[in-house]
Amino acid sequence: MSIAAGAKQQSFTDSDSDSDHSQSGESNSARRHTDLSNSIFKSYFDLTATTTSASPSPHDLSKIQSFLNSSSSGALSCLICLERIRPSDPTWSCGSLCFDVFHLLCIQSWARQASDLAALRASTRLPITSQKADETAIWNCPKCRSAYSKSQIPRTYFCFCGKLESPPNDNPWILPHSCGEVCNRPLKNNCGHFCLLLCHPGPCPPCPKLVKASCYCGKIEDVRRCGYKVYSCNSRCNKLLGCKSHKCKEICHDGECPPCHERGVYRCLCGKKEEEKQGKRTCPCGKRVHEGMACDVAVPLCGDTCGKMLSCGFHKCHERCHRGQCAETCRMVVFKSCRCGSLKKEVCGKRLRCKNHKCPSPCHRGPCAPCPVMVPISCACGHTRFEVPCGTEKDQKPPKCRKLCEIPPLCRHGTYIKPHKCHYGACPPCRLICEEEYPCGHKCRLRCHGPMPPPKPEFMFKPTKKRPIHQSESTPGSPCPPCPELVWRSCVGQHYAAERMMVCSNKTMFSCENLCGNPLPCGNHHCTKTCHALKFNTSNWLGKIATSESCEKCNLPCEKERKPGCTHPCSLRCHPDDCPPCKALVKRSCHCGSMVHAFDCIYYNSLSKKEQIYARSCGGPCHRKLPNCTHLCPETCHPGECPSPDKCSKKVTVRCRCQTLKKEWLCKDVQEAHRAAGSDPKDVSKNHFGLGLLPCNSDCKAKIQVVEQELHLRSSKDAEVKDSTTEAQPSKRKKRRQRLQEAKQLSTLQKILPAVKKLLLVVILVGTLVAASYYGYKALMWLSDYMNEVEEQRHSSKRRYPRI
């Protein structure tokens, strides 16, 4: 129960982590069940490295695991309609070989059509009624072709283990189409134990119980898993062979030991003679030679006439090849002569009613006596026999022998074929499923088509004149057809979710027409080509792809983000390594803002914050205005706010309201006086800072009166000057009209000027064309005249100096 308990515990722990992502967590659930199946089957995969053919193979275990993964991830599809099987769809799974899952409606339609067609064929080809044909009709699984009777057509939706009808599909913590309980199906090889997993698709895993088991030869006994209890100790078998003299030298193996191949000295039946056997052995008559036969196997009869010399010394044995001594009495009819040789007497010589022998009596009258010879009739191995009068053997059949046939099968199912009894002719063909493993990992699902042993001769007591040649060689088997399994195959670019369902033996490569997306050598970008075969791309079904295509070269500028604080882009092309150090200049002002420093980017960013503050300081006075007064900070250039702005010790001139009286105070005292007067020092302007803090006296009042009189006289003079200027200036309407007229004149000029410019441009172009055509024409005429002069000079030279 450890596996089942582990599976339950793992399912609870994983389900709690994904409870908030029920809709978008298909990939998470698939990963969760994959991890669970890996933990369950890890111990089984570790054991398969030392197991034999009788134990479950890694392919069987991976098949069980793939069923669990496909069911949990919702990747099951019906091979009849090729649609995805949803958790709410009623299903049926094959329980014979493939364990594949189909829609219930699809398999019902498939089974009815197949059984009806089989019944129709049987009723038309066999002498049976349509009702009998309908009762015996069968249908096959669409994938593994396992046969089912018509009564086995599924009619109800059951869970995988077959205990619950119509299992619920609204529980997210239970595998779809499962009842959620322990499977409890009987395990393989009828070991007596039951499956401990929760209700699951596919075959049950090997039995995990611990039992005591011995190896094939029986020398070593060990405690092993029940599913792997059949094993080899890898030592010599040493079992006694069928010859009862030698021992098997093979490594500890399953099944019967091979025939003895040793040479040895053997006695005859009476024990008088000894001979060494093993090499070339012949049939009893010595006409047919057999090589490589075991020493304890009887040589088969050749079926030809014996031909050995009889005891009379004149005639040969006319019987078929047989074991044992020939007939002691020669029954050939000959002419007998007297002692002097003058008379000869002939025996009767008539053919008897048996049609095999002649009458051995002297010539006589009347019918001959019945044939006295008794003919033995035996089975193919000679173990069972009986005798009948000569002549009646034609109507006899060979006796039924209870001994098993001694011819070993040559196909791969030799140890699994049900033994058959002694027979004449060829052995019955193997009717098991081939199950030969393809290179892809699937197995052939056809009937066995392996080699067959050489057939025995047919039962024929008296051969005809033209006897058919007995085939003594084995029949070679036919190769398995290409793998017909349907598999999901990825595109040449190995893209996710771009698989297609194809026949396993079809090696055609295809492109999904998506972008390649493979990381480029730069490590920063991805290939934008259409899906193509990658260089050195390997897969479990094609090996190395020869027609591969390299991804594009990255020519983009580098887009890597540098260290925090550096905002300058890299000047190189896209590259996989780290970017070179940034040597750009970084300008940073000092804390007080009086000067600007220029640093190398890598140098400035490599400094700590404290070092950066020290490097940015100009070393001079702060030069920043204090917040509460008009004075500058007296401290050295520093970051942050200026210290103690309320304790400024600069001297400030303080005046009365009329600015007649003045005194010098400290700045901090002036600030306190402004606060006492109800005003904030920050809001007081520079001109009014310290103004009105001293009280006015009598001198201030006299001075105010003189000032007011001067202001009154100044204001009257200003009014007279203003009136005189207003009379000389025109009104606003007149000014507006003048501006409008000036704008109209300017607009007309602006319209005329572009037209004049265009006209001048056209005139210049026309003049240029006319001049170019005129001078071109003149040049052509001059060239023509020049060519004519050259031609005339050539003719005149020919006239003066004719060829001799």
Automatic annotation (TrEMBL):
Quote the cellular component terms of the Gene Ontology held in the record.
Answer: nucleus
Bias class Basic and acidic residues marks the residues at: 715-725
What are the recorded GO MF terms, alphabetically? DNA-binding transcription factor activity, RNA polymerase II-specific; RNA polymerase II transcription regulatory region sequence-specific DNA binding; zinc ion binding
* Keywords annotated in UniProt: Membrane, Metal-binding, Repeat, Transmembrane, Transmembrane helix, Zinc, Zinc-finger
Enumerate the CDD domains for this protein: NF-X1-zinc-finger, RING-CH-C4HC3_NFXL1
| TM helices/strands, residue ranges | 759-777
**Region (Disordered) residue spans:** 1-32, 715-737
Pfam families, A to Z: zf-NF-X1 (PF01422)
Q: Give residue ranges for domain NF-X1-type.
A: 191-209, 243-262, 312-332, 354-373, 411-432, 440-485, 522-556, 566-584, 629-650
Q: Per the similarity annotation, which family is this?
A: Belongs to the NFX1 family.
The protein here is known as: NF-X1-type domain-containing protein
Organism from which the protein derives: Linum tenue
